[in-house]
Design a protein that fits this description.
The complex is a heterodimer of chains A (401) and B (214). By secondary structure, chain A is α+β, with helices and mostly antiparallel strands. Chain A is 67% helix and 10% strand. Classes of the chains: A alpha+beta (401), B alpha/beta (214). At the A-B interface, helix 9, helix 10 and helix 11 of A face helix 2, helix 3 and helix 4 of B.
Chain lengths: 401, 214
Amino acid sequence: MAPGIRPLHDGTMNALLATRPRRLPRWSWGVLLPLVMALSLTLWGFRYSTLVVVLLAVIISYTVPAVAADLLPIALINLGVHWLIGGVHLARSGTPVPASAAGGSSGVGGLISSYQSIAANPAYNSNGVHFVIFGAPTSATDMTTVAVIEATAGLAVVLFGLWLIPRTLGVHTGLVKRNSELSTRVQKLAATRVDAVDTAARELRRVERDLHDGAQARLVALGISLRATERLIKTNPDAAAALVAEARENSAKALAELRDLVRGINPPVLAERGLGDAIRALALDAQVATTVEIDLPGRPPAPVESAVYFAVAEILANAAKHADAGTVHILAAHSAGMLRIEVSDNGAGGADPALGTGLLGVERRLGTFDGILAVSSPPGGPTIVVIEVPCALSSPKTFSC
Amino acid sequence: MRVVIAEDLFLLREGLASLLKQHDFDIAEAVDNGPALLRALLGQRPDIAIVDVRLPPTYSDEGLRAALEARSQVPGLPILVLSQHVEQLYARELLADQAGGVGYLLKDRVFTDEQFIDALHTVARGGTVMDPEVVAKLLARPSNQKPVTRLTDREREVLALMAEGRSNSAIAQRLFVTEKAVSKHCTSIFAKLDLPPSDDDNRRVLAVLAYLNS
């Protein structure tokens, strides 16, 4: 987009672009994760906490994949810390402590005393971590070896968990970003779909009304004139001839109205020649002297052609009606998968798209194709309107006889 | 006079053919698609061809393209183009070779058969006939440049009627003036548009072209 181009303030596309997903800073996770870890230790205690965290991770991974990714290092660190504390405690005490000696106080002191008691409990030894790794220990010496190995393994697992954090954080932000982009996309698609359906319905109503008030009424009049002619043709040939002339006039008017209607639905030049020549035809018919510079090696898809054609027609009409422009220049080109039309005039400027419904309608129609419309119109002019629609061009049609 | 007709709608093609026969035209060939039209134009070399813009196989502007192609091979081959809609863009393309013998009318003009037959004769003679709707669009357009701005209102009126393919006597009738007055206007128009003296039909074509390019 050229510098100085101001996007429409209430344009759907521009509003959505402004609310792009933002990343959480990495340091916040560095604070948050240890906090969560400490909390999980305090709340869930010792024996099942790792299992609970893993289970939670599995459940959450089905609903919030981004958080599940974070839970893996948490679970590992949790496990490692258990081993470490258990190992250190065993090394210090050397012999199992009876379960009855366990303290019941709360807080960090309570936490540690509960570790001490549980680690020393034979019941724990028969189904806990020690048992899993080494089998049931039989003597104090055995317990010391177990304690050293266990503490070392615990430290390794903690370090591995810490090493994993930045990696899973990357996964987390990626997932969050993707999620946010997808929801933005869904919102936009929902909005443009409503616009597209509304526009189509409005167009159909207009066509129906025009046919009803125009061609249909003329054909009724035609039928009446013909019936009257039928009655008069022998008795009053002069009156009959006048009625026939009237009927012919009516049929010509009906044709003219149908022609205008067709122009509003699918302009014939657009159908016959494509966007480039249709814009040239618009320029020739414009109320303001208009020059064109068109570089389109093929044709965009028909719906895009149509939307862009009516957009250019609206912009040209505005330039003539409101801007009091003396000349208009239209540039049309396609590069890197983007169709770009620039309409500039030397009029009074000061065009505010928010005030008129014309340009907003154009923007909505282009939005269906992920197209955008931007207006730069400082007071005193010049006004530049840019349309961009992502699309591919089909190869030019070849004609041979 | 030998005519080639290119029209894909059967009813319209037969209707045109019977209308033309009533006016002593001789139907050399009636075709219904672009490639056949080009063959007919180049093979038959008719005195006049009536061509629908939109023809099979692509239903785009095959008729117009065939007409332009034939005229590029046979300059001045008289062709009257008919269409459901008229475009200045197409009018310019038809007139661009400046060879004359070109007409461009809405299909409904066929209803008024005298005028339609007149138009056919004008084009066959090498004249130019533009639909009043094309001319009206030109009149509506503010021309802020070039020699056409030097014309008086009356001269613009005369030029507009000239573009519709009317003869001096028809213009005189329409404007309620004498034919002599019209020919005076014409001379003045040709002078103001810097058209060198040459045969009248050719100058009329050039004047219309200058008008279209204004």
